[in-house]
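Please decode residue identities from the backbone states below.
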């Protein structure tokens, strides 16, 4: 399937190509994946490569998403960077790279976007850097690198010989840590060694993507790592302040329910819980309800359980 983005529609904006790496253990294209692709399609063209054997009935779901110019789904065993390699090679060999100002390597290890991606892309592209991304990471052992679930490369980087050589050298590794070191870390470090400059919205928040999912959301990075949701799940209702699209929250609910994690769905609200009650002869005289959302805690004071008389809010400082 192919559909080329209208040149008129992008006349005043940077032209972008998203090389999207997908994976599914059963070859299915889930709702969160399709949502992500649909939102990306509003901002550029997409080359979709899946490290899974997906039946034609699943790939047919992509026909409703505009600007997907190529889609391929075959198990290759080289994980995300193997998909990046194949997507890039297709664009290069079909003389498509010349059409774009920016090349993005993105994968489906995140849920989102919870809000408009445009402002984040504007920030990345106006940074003046050659290799950019929402989240960077480093520690005493591993040098700085852009997390590979969303990496942006300016034309000078993705058209450089070093980038072609780097992706062309991707091979299968059995150990995930080897993949991180050989490809995720090495991509940024190879760019820097070749004179490129790097920028991340959150330059040292890699671990926080798993331990404090709201850290990135507060900074305008509208994604949540899927592993953070499944390993240490917050109630998805707390994501609501960061999105104007209830659909993605419902999709996250569905994804977590598939993992055996569930909360009541339906109308997603922020509920108070009762924290104190004073009674006299069984009659509730004063009840205090509490609601905590991120750093803010609200206390609502009620008489006879239902008649609110005042509310006090407390915000915890960083």
């Amino acid at each position: 399937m192919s559909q080329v983005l209208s040149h008129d529609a992008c006349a005043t904006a940077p032209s972008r190509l998203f090389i999207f790496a997908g994976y599914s253990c059963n070859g299915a294209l889930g709702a969160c994946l399709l949502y992500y692709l649909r939102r990306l399609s509003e901002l550029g063209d997409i080359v979709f490569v899946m490290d899974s054997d997906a039946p034609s009935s699943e790939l047919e779901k992509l026909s409703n998403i505009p600007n997907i110019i190529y889609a391929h789904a075959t198990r290759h065993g080289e994980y995300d960077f193997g998909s990046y390699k194949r997507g890039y090679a297709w664009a290069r060999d079909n003389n498509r790279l010349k059409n774009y100002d920016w090349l993005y390597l993105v994968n489906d290890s995140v849920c989102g976007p919870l809000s408009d991606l445009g402002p984040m892309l504007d920030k990345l592209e106006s940074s003046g850097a050659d290799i950019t991304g929402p989240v960077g990471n480093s520690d005493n052992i591993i040098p700085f690198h852009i997390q590979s679930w969303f990496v942006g490369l300016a034309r000078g980087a993705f058209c450089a010989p070093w980038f072609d050589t780097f992706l062309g050298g991707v091979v299968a590794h059995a150990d995930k840590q080897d993949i991180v070191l050989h490809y995720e870390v090495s991509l940024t470090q190879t760019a820097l060694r070749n004179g490129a400059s790097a920028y991340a919205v959150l330059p040292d928040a890699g671990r926080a993507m798993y331990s404090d999912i709201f850290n990135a959301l507060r900074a305008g990075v509208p994604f949540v790592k899927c592993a953070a949701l499944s390993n240490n799940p917050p109630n998805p209702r707390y994501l609501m302040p960061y999105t104007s699209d209830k659909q993605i929250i419902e999709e996250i609910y569905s994804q977590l329910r598939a993992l055996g994690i569930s909360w009541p769905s339906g109308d997603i609200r922020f509920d108070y819980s009762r924290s104190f009650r004073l009674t006299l002869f069984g009659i509730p005289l004063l009840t205090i309800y509490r609601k905590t959302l991120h750093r803010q805690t609200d206390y609502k004071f009620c008489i006879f359980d239902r008649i609110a008389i005042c509310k006090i809010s407390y915000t915890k400082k960083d």
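Observation: The longest strand covers residues 283-293.
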